[in-house]
Design goal:
5 helices; about 0% strand; mainly alpha; about 140 residues
Length: about 140
C-alpha cells in the first residue's frame, strides 16, 4: 500500500532526526509540543513499530507480479522502523527514575550507545527508500 510506503519514509526520517539530535539528559519538564517530550518519543516509537510490522505484512511492489521478491522489497525499511521503535522506547525507559535496575536497563544502555549512527542510518534508509522505492532490498 502506498500509504504505508509514505508512513514508513516519514517515521524513519523523523525517528532518525530525533535519535541524531537527542541530548543525553531528557529530564525535567518539557513544553507540551516539544520534540524532546517523552510522550512524543513514545507515540513515535509505537507508530514506527506498527508501520514496520505492517510493512512486513503488506510490502509495496510493482504491478508486474512476475518480477521481484515481494517480501524482501520492504525488509530494510521495516527493520529500520522496528529498530527505531526499540531505540525510542528504550530511551524513555532509560530516563524513567523508577526503572534503574535489572537486565532490561543493561540492554537499553548497551543499545542506546549506538543511537547517533542508527539515526544516520535511519535517515539514509528513508532517503534511499524515497528515491528508489522498487529496489530489491528497499
Amino acid at each position: 500500500m502506498i500509504q504505508l510506503y509514505f508512513l514508513s519514509i516519514l517515521c524513519n526520517a523523523i525517528s532518525g532526526y530525533v535519535l541524531l539530535t537527542e541530548n543525553d539528559n531528557m529530564t525535567g519538564d518539557k513544553p507540551s509540543f516539544s520534540i524532546s517530550n517523552p510522550v512524543f518519543y513514545l507515540v513515535l516509537g509505537i507508530v514506527s513499530a506498527v508501520v514496520g510490522i505492517l510493512k512486513l505484512l503488506s510490502p509495496t511492489y510493482n504491478l508486474d507480479y512476475t518480477k521481484g521478491v515481494f517480501f524482501l522489497g520492504d525488509l530494510l525499511p521495516a527493520a529500520a522502523g522496528i529498530i527505531a521503535a526499540l531505540m525510542l522506547i528504550f530511551g524513555i525507559y532509560r530516563n524513567d527514575n523508577s526503572a534503574k535496575s535489572g537486565e532490561l536497563e543493561r540492554i537499553g544502555v548497551n543499545l542506546l550507545v549506538f543511537r547517533k549512527p542508527i539515526g544516520i542510518a535511519l535517515l539514509a534508509v528513508a532517503l534511499v527508500h524515497f528515491l528508489f522505492g522498487q529496489l530489491l532490498f528497499l
